[in-house]
Design brief:
The chain folds into two domains: 147 residues, Aspartate Aminotransferase, domain 1, CATH 3.90.1150.10; 226 residues, Type I PLP-dependent aspartate aminotransferase-like (Major domain) (Aspartate Aminotransferase, domain 2, 3-Layer(aba) Sandwich). Helices cover 44% and strands 14% of the residues. An eight-stranded mixed sheet has the order 2-9-8-7-6-3-4-5, sandwiched between helices. Strands 10-13-12 form a three-stranded antiparallel sheet, covered by helices on one side. The structure holds pyridoxal-5'-phosphate.
């Protein structure tokens, strides 16, 4: 028998992944993927950027670069983050191969097998997997419509003999819940974590994808509030604002944490792709990214509104959701007795696919939620697919003799 390490012995393909493999028929309507729509990518802009690179820039793009990132991107990304109010000068920026790598490196830096960490429930599955792979003991704190349940957080902090190694959160347009933490929740969180020697990993993959200018106050990141007495490790990504194929993200962290993370990254991949770093740099340097965001925000908002409207008018009683104010997702709560995997099986038969709630439950039990992505599907397909999702929910509710 092959003797794998203890950290991978228990890694399994999830039930959901196996089910998803049934869902790759060509005409399937996909509400499952958390990725941008292929038809919205800035293809012409990439062409122009590449054509306009000088030979010197092309040579840099083809070569290995420094572990922490090519100087051009570090400079332009610093400016971009400063404009968002982030304390770039007092921290260090490390370019990573997607922000999942940033999360993974931070997990590597902090977790010894058996260490407790706190996450939200529900939680981004990529982060759960990363934390599991370092054999963390994961404690989950429920989310409310306003953000993390601070009463539960306080209770868990009081109960624990040893403080968690870190808290991992996605305050802006959560995946999967879509939640935007209120400013009050962010400030309350800061109060609770202050001077406790518990770093906060703030995952900010979605904050540029807001639908309403008036949400700007709530969108301010915890890192940019710059709280004293908390080491905030801020992670971000080009995946949702340009394209995941670039495989570029970053972390902005205090110097001491940065030094360890840079060493960890060196041993993983030496550096992130110089080629895509050069492209991302040009997007930032020429402000093309701002124009592009101004183009995609209304498009995603429109899709979210269509989906919201259809759900509001057709979902059976007992199913609830909060209309999203940004990001990529709608998170629907089904009646407690309903098993989202059974709904998903029906939906796949009808030609539509989404992700069932258990996937995002760090405890792997609660399954009366579904996540619908509106980012990756055209209006026409949303109009066609949502009635099929609703029919599947209704059929399961009828089977359980629930009024619907
Ligand atoms: C909340 C969150 N964080 C991080 C990531 C990772 O993105 P990437 O590694 O492509 O930057 C994702 C991707 O879906 C996400 O939803």
């Amino acid at each position: 028998m092959i003797r794998f390490s203890s950290s991978v012995t228990n890694l399994r393909s999830s039930e959901i992944r196996d089910l998803m493999s049934l869902a790759n028929k060509p005409d399937m309507i996909l509400f499952s993927g958390g990725m941008p729509d292929n038809d919205l990518f800035p293809l012409r802009e990439v062409d122009t950027i590449y054509q306009e690179l000088t030979d010197t820039e092309k040579k840099i793009a083809m070569q290995y670069g420094p572990t922490h990132g090519i100087p051009q991107l570090l400079a332009s990304l610093s400016e971009y983050l400063k404009e968002k109010g982030l304390p770039v000068e007092e921290n260090r920026l490390l370019i990573t191969t997607g922000s999942l790598q940033a999360i993974n490196i931070l997990a590597h830096a902090f977790i010894d097998p058996g260490d407790t960490i706190f996450v939200e429930n529900p939680c981004f599955i990529g982060a759960i997997s990363a934390f599991r792979s370092y054999q963390a003991s994961i404690v989950s704190i429920p989310l409310t419509a306003d953000g993390l349940n601070l009463i539960e957080l306080r209770k868990k902090l009081d109960e624990m003999e040893k403080a968690p190694k870190f808290v991992y959160l996605t305050p802006n347009f959560h995946n999967p819940a879509g939640t935007l933490y209120t400013r009050e929740t962010k400030l309350g969180l800061i109060e609770l974590l202050k001077n406790k020697n518990i770093p906060l990993i703030e995952d900010d993959a979605y904050s540029d994808l807001y639908f309403h200018e008036e949400d700007k106050l709530h969108l301010q990141t915890i890192k940019s509030i710059n709280p004293e007495g908390i080491d905030v490790c801020y992670t971000g990504s080009f995946s949702k604002i340009l394209g995941p194929g670039l495989r570029l993200g970053w972390m902005l962290v205090p110097e001491e944490i940065y030094k360890k993370c840079e060493l960890i990254k060196q041993s993983i991949d030496a550096c992130s792709p110089s080629f895509t770093q050069m492209v991302a740099h040009k997007f930032l340097q020429n402000n093309v990214v701002t124009d592009y965001l101004n183009y995609i925000r209304p498009e995603y908002k429109h899709r979210a509104e269509i989906m919201t409207q259809l759900l509001k008018t057709t979902l059976p009683k007992g199913c609830n959701f909060t209309p999203p104010r940004g990001g990529f997702y709608i998170w629907i709560e089904l009646p407690e007795q309903i098993d989202a995997t059974a709904v998903l099986k029906r939906a796949i038969e009808k030609g539509v696919v989404f992700v069932s709630g258990k996937t995002f439950d760090p405890d792997g039990t609660r399954n009366n939620y579904i996540r619908l992505s509106f980012c990756n599907t055209s209006e026409e397909k949303i109009r066609k697919g949502i009635p099929l999702v609703v029919d599947s929910i209704r059929a399961e509710m009828e089977l359980s003799h629930l009024p619907c």
